[in-house]
Structure formats: structure tokens, C-alpha cells
Amino acid sequence: MTLSRRQVGGLLLSLVVVLTALLLWLPPLAQPLEYHRFADGRVWLGVPNFLNVISNAAFLLVAALGLRTVAVTVGAGAERLPYGVLFIALAATGIGSAYYHLAPDNDSLFWDRLPMSVAFAALVAALVTERWSSRAGRWSLAVLVFAGIGTVLWWRYSAVLGRENILPYVAFQGGALLAALLLLLLPARYSHGVYLLAGVFLYALALAAELFDGVIFSWGQWLSGHTVKHVLAALAVYQVVRMLRLRRRA
Description:
By secondary structure, this protein is mainly α. It has one domain: Up-down Bundle (Rhopdopsin 7-helix transmembrane proteins), CATH 1.20.1070. The protein has helices at residues 5-25, 50-54, 57-73, 77-102, 106-131, 134-160, 167-183, 194-211, 213-217, 225-246. Helix 3 packs antiparallel against helix 4, helix 3 runs parallel beside helix 10 (225-246) and helix 5 runs parallel beside helix 7 (167-183).
């Protein structure tokens, strides 16, 4: 199913209006401290939370594969930029997340979420570039990166003000995923866009694994849900790499 630019533009505008209204209506929500209490806290080789730390290597691997793929297969500079930003941000996310899991708290979580917000922004901007226009893609990359970073900065600044609010960051991440799905309804310039849908599905599984962190760890105490989340999230972004390698002009 495909929609026109006007239809998708209307849906995107509605999404922004709804999310903004919710943020204005809902009371501030502080980052729950329970979030930092992961099921698998085992120390291996002197590294605390070892598997949650080391599993971030999956992000670094996919980032390296992604950057090489962009350099080899993505021709136009306008299309290359957002994908390059995406994979650089993914590598930074792997480093930031590993740092966070060494000593989980709100301060270290900041360095996990900051590059992650840039990665979401870059993915949406890449789709805007390819399915809307190169000019719109450049503008959206700048605006979305600024907005994504802004939500993370606001989370930490609002805590200083005594009204900590994580909701803008949550809304940005959820809104970015919904925007990506809406942009996939535009006519495709390239083939193999189905891999992006697979990526969204894998990321949804990653969020579910995070939610059931302790339950998954109880199944033999091999891997926790959060470790599985890292692997599934990396596989989700790897679908972008697969798409870039296989795609052809539609």
C-alpha cells in the first residue's frame, strides 16, 4: 500500500500534534530508579554486569558493517549523509551503553540515550531523503538531530529543576518509529524496503525482551532480557545494512 505525499504529510503532522498534546497534558515522569536494577549483574573477568556490557559489541560490529556498506553502495551525497550519521551514532551508542552498564545510574544513562536519539533522527531523515526529497532530508536531519538531543538534555535539566521528565525522550523515540512506518507508505525509490519493516519488528522484540529482563534470565540464567535486547536491537539496525546492500532502483 502506498500513499501520496499529501496524505503522509497530513499523518505526520497529526502525529506531531498528538504527541505534543500528550506531553502538555501528561504530568512529568521521572526516570524510575528500578530501571537500573538489571536481572543479570554477574561479574566476569572483573567486569561488572559483564554480559550487558560486552553485548554492546554487536552495535559496534553493525556500525562498522554499515559504514563500509554506505561507502561502497550509497552513491549520492544527500543519501549518504543520514546513513553515515546513523551508523556513527550506532557506534557511539554501543560505547555509551557499555559505559552505562559498567555502573548503571541516570548520569551514565545520559551517554547511552544521547547518541541513540541521534540514530533515530538519522533513520527518519534517511527515509525522508529517499522517499520525499533530498532537500527535505537535509532539513529533517538537522531538525530531528537537534530535537532528539534536546529531549535528552531536557531530561537531565528537568531533574536539576526538580521536575524530572523523561516523557519527551520517550515521545521522540516512539514518534520516530511511527514516522518511519508512515514514510514507508510513500512510493519507494529503491527495492527491498521490506527489510526496514523487519527491522522495526526486531526492535519491537528488543523492547519486549527488555521488559521481561528477569523472566528471560530465569530461563536457565544464561542470558537476561536486557542482553537479548542489545542483540535484537543490533540485528534490527543490521536490516538497514542488508537493505542497502541489496536494493536496486525501483
